[in-house]
């Protein structure tokens, strides 16, 4: 087997890169460990920056997003029982975000790939990259009981945090930066109308809470819980009761509750590896970096990596600009670290840290109060939330 760009992983990173390359006439083959249904069963984030929206439009997969996605011109921060509106549009000179679930983005990309006749091999096992420092790398893998060899020009490691791509890089060639937080997010999906028209990020003495949504009839809510918490300890009733306590009372009174259709706990982590390239292997998305979800940056960072690698590969194949390949990592990491900073900051400001002493807690409270009561502070939050610009590839 032979292709130009071998992609490991059919999450949003792999599928979006595959779609853009395919449209540009560059051959790809995607190897995915799970089945398509399994990939679509994962409930993940749902806020797209303008840059990602534009990229999905460029990739020709925006039809349903443009029809069904919810454009949000702002969001709310709840502190001491009061809402502060962060007017994204006014504070950023007209930018906004799109609320559209990652699951839907993935489904649209899968449909587009199938319609284009490009190949994704699901249930591909034992994927292993080889010869990454040579001009002719290859992957070995097992599919339906047979072993295959896939030769390629480049390998895109889009296989998430637990994938093989990053592990194929010798440990001494990678620098790892990591912070693990002492809490997780318990998330619930329910077919109930959202409590508020905007997303609400709430800081409360009992812990952080977030009110989000997927549509006018489907809500997504999260609660900060201790990292060792079990989802079995949380009946729907307990979840709704705790959420009400953490929301300003006027919102709690309006909250419509109902049976959950999904409930899960995700740990919070900040993680970056440097560099994001090893020979002809490039890491994208969660394979290279993780952010805590408080700034809604995970999916969006994956999209900016995809944009960067796509534009570089385009110039490599069309203009022979191979020197650009060496720039991939530094270009990505500049944006990655800014999003890491913002995600860490939002997390630090809005959560309760079990080990924090009284002084640290007061500092965090007053830092947040300062930011939300200052035009400059709100502008900083808004500018980061809508997403920092993508670097041009020249
Ligand atoms: N071989 C093949 N595929 C693999 C392997 C492997 N060894 N390991 C993992 N995969 C697949 C996973 O099954 C998954 O479908 O790679 C895919 C990775 O997808 P994601 O984890 O969704 O990562 P990514 O595409 O980078 O998406 C960006 O940002 O913060 C997040 O929630 C956000 O998941 C989103 C991510
Ligand atoms: C979500 O809707 O799942 C969501 C929204 C905003 C975040 C994180 C998650 O910051």
TrEMBL record:
Keywords, ordered alphabetically: NAD, Oxidoreductase
Entry's Gene Ontology molecular function annotations: 4-hydroxybenzoate 3-monooxygenase activity
InterPro entries found in the cross-reference section: FAD-bd (IPR002938), FAD/NAD-bd_sf (IPR036188), HB_mOase (IPR012733), PheA/TfdB_FAD_monoxygenase (IPR050631)
Domain FAD-binding: 2-343
EC number: 1.14.13.2
PANTHER family tied to this protein: 3-(3-HYDROXY-PHENYL)PROPIONATE/3-HYDROXYCINNAMIC ACID HYDROXYLASE, BLR0106 PROTEIN
UniProt protein name: 4-hydroxybenzoate 3-monooxygenase
Gene this chain is encoded by: pobA
